[in-house]
Amino acid sequence: xxxxxxxxxxxxxxxxxxxxxxxxxxxxxxxxxxxxxxxxxxxxxxxxxxxxxxxxxxxxxxxxxxxxxxxxxxxxxxxxxxxxxxxxxxxxxxxxxxxxxxxxxxxxxxxxxxxxxxxxxxxxxxxxxxxxxxxxxxxxxxxxxxxxxxxxxxxxxxxxxxxxxxxxxxxxxxxxxxxxxxxxxxxxxxxxxxxxxxxxxxxxxxxxxxxxxxxxxxxxxxxxxxxxxxxxxxxxxxxxxxxxxxxxxxxxxxxxxxxxxxxxxxxxxxxxxxxxxxxxxxxxxxxxxxxxxxxxxxxxxxxxxxxxxxxxxxxxxxxxxxxxxxxxxxxxxxxxxxxxxxxxxxxxxxxxxxxxxxxxxxxxxxxxxxxxxxxxxxxxxxxxxxxxxxxxxxxxxxxxxxxxxxxxxxxxxxxxxxxxxxxxxxxxxxxxxxxxxxxxxxxxxxxxxxxxxxxxxxxxxxxxxxxxxxxxxxxxxxxxxxxxxxxxxxxxxxxxxxxxxxxxxxxxxxxxxxxxxxxxxxxxxxxxxxxxxxxxxxxxxxxxxxxxxxxxxxxxxxxxxxxxxxxxxxxxxxxxxxxxxxxxxxxxxxxxxxxxxxxxxxxxxxxxxxxxxxxxxxxxx
Length: 621
Prior knowledge:
Blueprint: H1 7-20, H2 27-54, E1 60-69, E2 74-81, H3 83-106, H4 113-132, H5 136-154, H6 161-192, H7 198-201, H8 204-213, H9 215-232, H10 241-244, H11 250-259, H12 264-271, H13 273-276, H14 280-301, H15 307-327, H16 331-365, H17 380-391, H18 396-413, H19 420-439, H20 443-446, H21 452-469, H22 474-493, H23 500-527, H24 543-557, H25 563-573, H26 580-605
Antiparallel strand pairs: 1-2
């Protein structure tokens, strides 16, 4: 029985591989492959769940395969199956099946027909990996796949300005959530001294014993899990990204932001509930966050002029209530609520075009003003203030920009004196000095080693910030991204158990992706003018270069399961629990590197084309 659950990952993977080799002009073949893949997987899931229920619904755990193993570290794929998995798997399979049927006709003759179905199958693969995951490492693989699929689907209309811009915004918020998950994984390595499985988290005695002696570490892990869940499920203060994500086609909005992906934060809380259920402060914080989000999102939803935005904020409000239910311990009710909200929002989004046309006709012939509402009973100043705040979406996007993005850009601008030549002139001597410190065995130097890893990691972080704010040279931005990895590798090498072969394994992925990406940029520069001041849209005339560069960006960003991805997890497993500066700098570098890379790819290859003989598209979809 245990080995059967592998099929739910293998079937979408096989369908994705087949669809990649089908020509873009063969719409029927592409849609049939997607239809059969999701349909067969749905039937398999239903049959297995019935068999599982008849066998007294046991909890299943399967240690799949060791991806990388050393003396002190093991990266393994682990699969887990219980009642939470069943609900998410059934809902996900059924909704994806419906969306596949709907999209076969909705996207007929769209230029991106093949891209859409390839991305949907890739999303379905990532979703199944996340839902079936048995440890944080496997969950993070699915988590990252969903993140990149989200970017690709929002920017589906890649010749338009707003879809591409909003895709970058949404991906940036997702990466903030990734910081929480990465730091939770890092702290878990030190709490358990192993890659803890979700099966072991259900052992109350084991969890209680570890939290008694490491209570602050337990609270830190719980808070980081909450940050990751809040960002993924659009809870405060991250709620503003969800309506921006509606720039993609209606089917992708339904499957991603109405039903499945937006509920992955709920899944993370449910899966880790045995770990934090006895931390009362964390439960209160989750409930308060859900309550605040529900109130604010409900008020914003009531004043939206776009039907998609209304549905988005209504979904956010319901997810806030689900957060409260989980905090109160109503796990089964939360699962039921998730299924109902997912189906209802999918239905709303799929019928929204028809509903809008009916309402416009009805309003034209039979307009009736709204009746008395709750807000009318409030004092007028309060009522008008709430109305204005709701129209401005409570300035959530402005708050995120002021707190997170603007300071990063300000720091990056202070480094504008760096050019490629100056960068290399400063980098090479500084790095050589770092290597000298690493290999010196003199005791007077060794006593300062505890400060050097944090210092070198901060230098790497500064390079990422400069890359993020770079507006002129793509080559400069690319070199800074590569150098960041070299500084992180040097910083971790000071920790005694990080061996040379592990460093080389980590940097092998960086070297391959870095060289290929550098070649693409030079190639593009030889026949096009490139900078980062605007979107260039070069994917129209250079689609192969665009694909190769996207793969290079994913490799350099540590996309699953490249050597860079495993190497980054390896890096965090070797950061000591008292090295907060090093952990923060490494996590921030990883997150900002992903944002900078996606921004670099988008500026060069997506958006309206710079050449005037191409058709000028609408700004929005």
